[in-house]
Design brief:
The structure is a homodimer.
Chain A (H helix, E strand, L loop, with lengths): L3 H6 L9 H10 L2 E4 L4 E3 L8 E6 L2 E6 L5 E7 L4 E3 L12 E4 L3 E6 L1 H7 L4 H27 L2 H14 L14 H8 L3 H13 L3 E4 L2 E4 L2 H8 L14
Antiparallel strand pairs in A: 1-8, 2-7, 3-6, 3-8, 4-5, 4-7, 9-10
Helix pairs in contact in A: 5-7, 5-8, 6-7
Chain B binds a DNA duplex (30 and 30 nucleotides) through helix 7.
Chain lengths: ~240, ~240
DNA sequence: ACCCTTGTGTAACGGTGGTTACCGAGCAGC
DNA sequence: GCTGCTCGGTAACCACCGTTACACAAGGGT
């Protein structure tokens, strides 16, 4: 049952469509496999394509003025991204890179225009999509501004395990320290030591190339400032 | 000519409306003056209101898990914000605070539903609005991640003077170091010394309670990493 | 079994920025 | 004028994190 139809049916954006409409859409959208680390979109060679993630994880990032990449979003199955200004979905200078071997649906701007633009059900979903994106960005921003690296790491690991509900409880996260460092905007070295700390406290276990989360709850508690001086400053007095 | 009608006509969101439609809208939206520092919205006591900035500047911020406020957006005249889930405009846990004495239009959720929701011209503008917001957040994020404090300061001062085109070239920025520190997520002390550096280089001039920008171009150059070691790392090699 | 690449662990050094603690300078009200 | 407040300036101290530089371990390919 791994056809494009199935791909689309998992996507929030198309939730309101009937089976027939979805099939029509699916017929036009080729499925593509990509390897881990592959760059899917770059501002250097912008393509007006809508990407729909069927399997795997994609990282959006920007290149700061110093040349340093900064992660702006972490996308999982069922989400869409791409440069299609017509429907308000924009990359805005971001790069896109597959974190794992992934599978995506591609949709041409012509089909987008034809099939999506006029449909109010879709535009409504696009709105929700953007709202969620804004919330995530704000979360990332506050994390960057006032969490320590171990806390950001815990937070990221938590979200990385969150959106994999299907099989057993906790599939290990298949990322190298280098890649994780990119996600939390830190160096590989500090990431390694911070992961070591988390492992010492029994929150995770480390293997080569993958990380097993042993306690998601404690991870979350730690991410929210679980071990800290009780300096609660409510805001202005 | 300072009636509500004029207020609405400056707002991007309503750009497509006819004069008559705008008048109808204006009749329902009371105008309100607020003092500098006043909190307009807090997640503690959420109100379903749409705010439209006529004059002044508003800062959106969140309270991190440490109790520390983090600026997520800086809004000027003509922009809208508020908690109106129906049209996809959400505060998402943000607080809103007036930076200067400001003037805003308020609109009730009922009127929003009645007058805005069904209009495709408006929903399209809302989309654009959100897209711009996302772009700004990503910009803030990369700034936070890979710019030094003086650079962030220069960047912020630049945007603060950008959107005041009307009168003479450069109206001074009327903010205390404390407030600026909030905008760039730093302490008052470091902000003071960083401002001192900028002043020494002749980019700005300092007075009590206000800052005059003498060279916007040099400010921008500095903000983009104007003085730095030429370590251009293009990304991966 | 060998090498060689890739991923991981660790430590010293320096820079940036938060913390704390004062002090002086402008300004308002009396 | 004096008093008291807010705003601005400065410095010592320390935590966090990036940089550099190695050492080693785990696999993969031959």
């Amino acid at each position: 049952m791994h056809d494009t139809h199935y791909c689309l049916s998992e996507v929030d954006l198309f939730r309101d469509l009937s089976r027939k409409e979805m099939a029509e859409l699916g017929a036009r959208a080729p499925l593509r496999d990509v390897a881990a680390g592959q760059v899917l979109y770059s501002p250097q060679r912008p393509t007006e394509t809508l990407f729909i993630i069927k399997r795997g994880r994609v990282r959006l990032f920007q290149i700061g003025s110093t040349g340093q990449p900064v992660t702006t979003a972490l996308l999982g199955p069922g989400t869409v991204f791409g440069e299609v200004p017509l429907i308000g979905i924009r990359m805005g200078g971001n790069w896109a890179e597959a974190l794992e071997p992934s599978q995506l649906c591609l949709m041409s701007p012509h089909d987008v225009r034809e099939l999506l633009l006029a449909d109010p059900r879709i535009t409504r979903r696009i709105n929700e999509h953007m709202t969620a994106h804004i919330a995530e960005l704000e979360h990332r921003l506050t994390d960057m501004a006032c969490k320590t690296l171990p806390e950001r790491l815990a937070s990221t690991l938590w979200t990385l395990t969150k959106a994999t509900p299907p099989k057993e409880a906790s599939e290990p996260v298949r990322l190298t320290h280098q890649q994780l460092a990119g996600l939390v905007n830190a160096t590989r070295e500090r990431t390694t030591t911070a992961l070591g700390d988390l492992a010492e406290n029994g929150l995770i276990r480390l293997h080569r190339g993958k990380i097993t989360v042993t306690s998601r709850e404690r991870l979350l508690i730690f991410a929210e400032g679980g071990g800290r001086s009780p300096t609660d400053v409510p805001y202005r007095q």
